[in-house]
Every structure is written in C-alpha cells, then in structure tokens.
Amino acid sequence: MTYLLEHINTDDINCEKYYNFLNSGVHQTFFWKEVSKIKKEKIWICRAVNNQNKEETNILGTFTKELFGLKNLRVTDLKLPENGPILFLHNFLDMINSQNFINVEITFSKNSTYFSQEQIKKINIQNFKNKKLTTLFVSLNESKEEIFSRFSSSTKKKIKRNKAKFKAEKIDGPTFYKIYKKMESLNGRIFNLSDNLIEKFWQIEKPFYNYYVLIDENKTHLACLGMYNLNGVSTEIASSMNPHCFQAKIPAQHILHWYLFLEAKRMGMNTFDLANVELYPRTKKEEGIKQFKSSFGGIAKDYNMLYKQHKILNSLVLLKKNVKKVF
Questions:
Q1: For labeling, which of 71, 140, 271, 315 is most exposed (least CB within 10 Å)?
Q2: Tell me, what CATH number does 314's domain have?
Q3: pLDDT tens-digit profile of 28-56?
Q4: Residue ranges making up the domain that contains 164
Q5: Residue 52 — φ and ψ, nearest 5°?
Q6: CB atoms within 10 A of CB 306
Q7: How far apart are the first and last CA of the chain?
C-alpha cells in the first residue's frame, strides 16, 4: 500500500472550496485564511491518495517565505488514515523533507492514534522531533448528575454555592470578542484581531460556534467562554475572566464551564474538549490551569506534534531581518 502525495499552495481559495476539499474536519477555514493574510502567510494543501483502495486524505497548512526561497510550514489537525497510518506518515514526512522548509510544525488531530516515542523512532522522520501534547476530554454521554459527580469536591462546592447568584447568556461572535478583548486587556494580554475580520468570520462560521458570557445582577461581565462543535465534540475557545473575580473569589469560569457542558450536551455533543493541559507543569500558571481543568474529571488524551528547525539557516534569516531594521 502506497500513497501518492502532491501539494498546491495558494491564498485565493474560497471557503466553499475548502469545505468541499477537506475531509479532515477542519472548519475554521475562513478565519485562518484571513489571519494568514495578516501574517503574510499562504495556504498550503496536500492531497494524498491511497493507490490501493483510492482512499483520499487532504491536509491544510500555511507557509511563509523566507530568505533564499526557504519557507516555514505549519500544519494543524493532521488526521491520519485508518489504513496504514505509519506508511502514510512516513511518505508525508519524506515529501515535506523534499521541500525547502527550514521550520516545520505538524500537529496531529486529537482523534488520531497517539504514537509513542518508540514508534516515532521507527519512522523515517530525519530531522523531526516529537513532542507529546495532552488534552482533557469530558464525556457528555451520561446524565448531568453523573457528569457533575465526577467533578472534584471543591469544584462542586463552588458551583453549588454560587451558580444561583449569576447568569450565563449566549451572545453573538462580534459582541463576544469585544468583551473578550476588554477582559484580555484588563489582564495585561493583547488580542489584536480587527472587528471587521471577526464580523466576516462570524457570518461564515457561526453554525459551528457558540459564545457565552457570565454576568451578575448589575450586568457586569464576569467571564466569557466560547466553544465550537464538530463531529460530536465541543472544544473550548477564548476563555477569559474579569480580574475582579480573582479579587472577590468568584468562581466564574467554574460556573461557565458547567453551563457550557450542559449546553453542549443539549446540542447533541458527546464530548467536551478542554484543550491543552500540561500534566507536568513547569510554571505556576501551568499548574493553575492543570488544577482547574482536571477538576472537571476529564480523561487525558495524548496526541503528537512533530517539528524541525534548521538552526544555521534560521540564524541567516534572523540576521537578514536585523540588518533590515538597522538600515
């Protein structure tokens, strides 16, 4: 069994063609296409066909051009075929190695089989290194009582004691991101996507996305959280909280997450993806995120990221950029 691999790169493919072309579950196409334009990136698509059973796999990535025609490549949500995933990956990486990429980052789909370090070593990955990433999946298949029973005792208490004091509301994307941008600013972080871009994104992608805000009796925005739904999985995005909640010890995100679990279940989703978590945190921030996300009783799911960097060529590119700044 072998795969015939070919790729095209363009920044002028409309969203409808993306939807028809991709079969890997990537649906944030318009959003990332526009973000790529801002970052001066171009779209890269790989088409792989199994010449035995004609199974077709399509992969979306973005690339940027650098010095001497060299390029950086980023591939997200790489979904491996069920038949011959090792051979497919071997051929895919060989194809990438034949291109002039000085930096490559490939993140696998969270639903793909996780390859251990030992398995990765058996694949001809040449200059690639493997990094294990972990997410937490909360099952929504049981009753809400059973889902709640898996929470930690402290999280149960926080929700029970406070949920009646506050109200969660569903809002549209543009309104949500104005609130999110303000909260991020209050927390010393920058969210720099324009209102115009967010409006365009919302008009095309709103069937998949849901946004919520938690408010108090004075209509003060305490926290915001979004999720996108695809193939039975709700994945959290854009989580932020008013600094006032830290000072007043309001468990706003605990309450909002519980509300979104119930919303996702009502929508027919079977899993809630809490997104990345460091099981072995190196900083206080990572430790806090781990404690918070683990408190919902999710199951850890490992997935891979392969990457490579060419140190010498990267140094030349950096030198060129620094020279430009001086002159």
A1: 315
A2: 3.40.630
A3: 555 555 556 666 667 777 777 877 777 77
A4: 137-302
A5: -95, -50
A6: 23
A7: 54
Structure tokens of 143?
Answer: 């009753």
Q: For tokens 């001497």, name the residue.
A: 68
- Beta partners for residue 290, in sequence order: none
Number of compact structural domains in the chain: 2
**Residues 244-255: pLDDT tens digits?**
999 999 999 999
Nearest-angstrom CA–CA distance, 121 and 288: 33
Could you count the other beta carbons within 10 Å of the beta carbon of residue 253?
A: 19
User: Is the pLDDT assigned to residue 20 strictly greater than 50?
Assistant: no
Assign 150 a pLDDT band (cuts: 50, 70, 90). very high
Amino acid at site 251: P
Burial profile 32-66: b = 16 or more Cβ within 10 angstroms, e = fewer:
bbbebeeeebbbbbbebbbeeeebebbbbbbbeeb
CB neighbour list of residue 230: distance below 8 Å, 6 or more residues apart: 25, 27, 208
Q: Are residues 72 and 186 in the same domain?
A: no
Same domain assignment for residues 316 and 285 = no
**Virtual CA dihedral for 236, 209, 46, 114, nearest 10 degrees?**
30
What is the average pLDDT value for the chain, to the nearest integer?
A: 82
